[in-house]
Structure formats: C-alpha cells, structure tokens
Write a structure and sequence with these properties.
- With 181 residues, this protein is mainly alpha-helical.
- It has 2 domains: 58 residues; 102 residues, no CATH class.
- It has 7 helices and no strands.
- Helix 5 packs parallel to helix 7 and helix 6 runs antiparallel to helix 7.
- The longest helix has 32 residues.
- About 6% of the residues have low confidence.
- This is DUF8129 domain-containing protein.
- InterPro entries: DUF8129, LipDrop-assoc.
Length: 181
C-alpha cells in the first residue's frame, strides 16, 4: 500500500517510532552503557593512532625519495675505519696499547714464541686476548693473518664479538687493497 503523505512526514513518523522503540530498550542498555562507552572511546583512540601512524609512514616514504639513502649512517664508525689521531691531540689508548705490545714482542726471544703457540700462527696468544686487546693488534696483521684468525675463531670459540670484529677488519683491508690497486 502506497502512502499519499509527503516524504518528510513519513520520515518524521519513522523517527518517532524508532525513538519510542529505543526508549523501551533503554533500561536494558543502561547496565552495559559504561562498558560500551569506554570500549567505543578506546576503539576511536586506536583508529586515530593507526591513522596518524599511516600518515607518518607515507610522509617518511615521500621524504625518503627526496634524499639519497646512506649506505652506512654517519654515526656508525669502527676503530679500523678511523684514521689515527694527529700527534698534537691526546694519545689514543688503543694505539698506546698496540705500541706497548709491539715493543714487548720485539724483546721476546724466538724460542719463547714457539712455546706460547696455543693459538693460530698469526697471533699465538690469541686465545687469551680480550676484544680491546685484539682490536689493538689488528692493524699490524695481513689479510692472510686476519683470515687465519677468522677461521680459527669459527672452528673454536665462535664468539660473536670476535667474529664480527675480524669480519669487519677483513672487509676494511680488502677495500683498502682495492683502492690501492
């Protein structure tokens, strides 16, 4: 059956009926109202946070395309990557230790080196060295010596700090050899 009443009157009547139905359900809904309000507020907050994060990611992508990506961030430096400090500045403790060790090694007899050969040939005292002590000795080793130490470390203790330092030093020496060629 089609109504002859205008559309706005029919809409108003529908709203009135809906209001009455909702008013009848109100006492049942009042008990769960606080939980519903809190839940909806949290959902809205989460949606806003997600939207903000999406916008930030899009912004990062847009800005990243405007500037070139650095292969190595400028804050990521390693001892073997840096040039030695000029003599006018305070002495580098690693260089001082390396100098002291090399002076000590110059005074050691050939026979004593053979007795202490527990570690690899390139660095017989290797097993007793801490990371800083090893770092102080790396600059005087050849590429073959470094590769020998890396193989020895992999076969024996396989300590991540030592493996990483030796791998980085080998890469640095290879890069220097490539630029010198």
């Amino acid at each position: 059956m089609k109504s002859s009443l205008p559309l706005p009157v029919r809409i108003a009547a529908g709203l009135a009926v809906t209001a009455v139905e909702q008013a009848r359900k109100l006492p049942e809904q009042l008990t769960g109202l606080p939980v519903t309000v809190v839940s909806q507020a949290l959902q809205l907050s989460m949606r806003v946070q997600q939207r903000v994060t999406e916008l930030a990611i899009k912004g990062d992508d847009a800005l990243a395309s405007l500037r070139p990506v650095e292969e190595t961030p400028e804050w990521a430096t390693f001892d073997e990557d840096e040039d030695p400090e000029p003599p006018a500045q305070p002495e580098d403790p690693w260089l001082a230790e390396e100098r002291a060790v090399s002076e000590h090694e110059d005074t050691v007899d050939e026979g004593e080196d053979d007795v202490a050969a527990d570690g690899p040939d390139a660095l017989p005292e290797y097993d007793e060295l801490s990371v800083p002590q090893l770092r102080a000795r790396l600059r005087r080793l050849t590429l073959d010596d470094l590769e020998q130490l890396l193989a020895y470390e992999r076969e024996h203790a396989a300590r991540p700090a030592y493996l990483g330092m030796l791998t980085r030093r080998i890469a640095t020496v290879r890069a220097q050899e490539n630029t010198d060629s």
